[in-house]
Give the backbone structure.
Amino acid sequence: MRDLVRRIDSATPPGRDRAVDALRALAILGVVLGHWLVSALVVESGTVRGASPLRYMPQLAPISWLFQTLAVFFLVGGQVAVGSYTSARARGTTYGQWLGARLARLSRPVAAVLTVWAVTAGAMVASGVGLETVHTLVKLAVSPLWFLLVFSALTAATPLVARLHPVYPLAVVASVDLACFGYGGPAWLHSVNVAAGWLVPYCLGAAWARGRLTGRATGWALLLGGAAATTGLVLWAGYPAAMVGVPGVAISNLDPPTLAVVTFGLAQCGGALLLLGPLRRVLARPTAWAVVALVNLSAMTIFLWHQTAMMATTATGLLTGRALPGLHTVPDGPAWILARLAWLPVFAVALLICWAAFRSYEQGRPRSRSRSRSRGRSLVVAGQRTARPAPTPVGMRLTVSHTVDLLKGE
């Protein structure tokens, strides 16, 4: 592990902003923990249905404020995409080549999860599992894909939106909400906010890449202004307090995005910008940076399989023959919360198993053993040759070399 930490630190380009990677990792982990805490599967009369503790205990809405971190992911996505596209154009890379490389890492893990769940759904139907249960499980498994579709569309539109001011999509979101909620506009009109809502933090990220979001004053303005606007919308305009979808509730802040979730995202983006300095200081430590780098290298695998890990744990629990608290029971009280917290480490182990099985679809295959062996004989740190490390198993050497290669090419 010391070898891996050292290699990752030395392989990181000097100009890489490690805080950007940390924000991405925090955003992904926030979504994972949020889903594990507010998504429940209830078993009743042999049927599995979805539920949420936020419906039974609305006072838990602040949990969604902590773990609904999608705006930060779009902020980082816009910043990275604009920087990457600018560098690609300087190298003479065409738009098609650049876009293909950006989307390839998304498409491979998506194909894997769709294939596995297509086979799983077919097997469940063939074995007599009820269609309602199959629908609940498949919907939960593939629900993260809507996010990737939007993210891919915005990535493809990067050359068009790179200089778009965030106030324009923000105005679109406000106008659509006013038309739908204030004047009874058609429901389909609200779907416009799927693109416009997430375009706001994406354009903020693009402005960040152009050097426009400098100084802590900007971060504080976004944080305080977004928080004040969100508070006003919840208290006086009738928007839900939960920043995620809640089953059985008439209005969802997230599907599609409402003005409240967009202003909340502005506050999150402001907080993220204020964290850049502290994160850079922490990530100067090689061990902290290695953890962030490894999470980023598997970000899509973690995101796509975390719901499957939760459902696999739930299905395994059914083998006990009884409803387990926090896993199969209705999320309607503090006892469920305590039980669910106890299940989180089990979900993490299940996700680790999924990661081991499917990470190659995101990261690609490691290079040949012979190349790894020849490259692993010595280390170069800060331009100086170091003593050869203690012998490590070939599998570990392959993992170290492959991880470093991915980091260099990320």
In short: The radius of gyration is 23 Å.
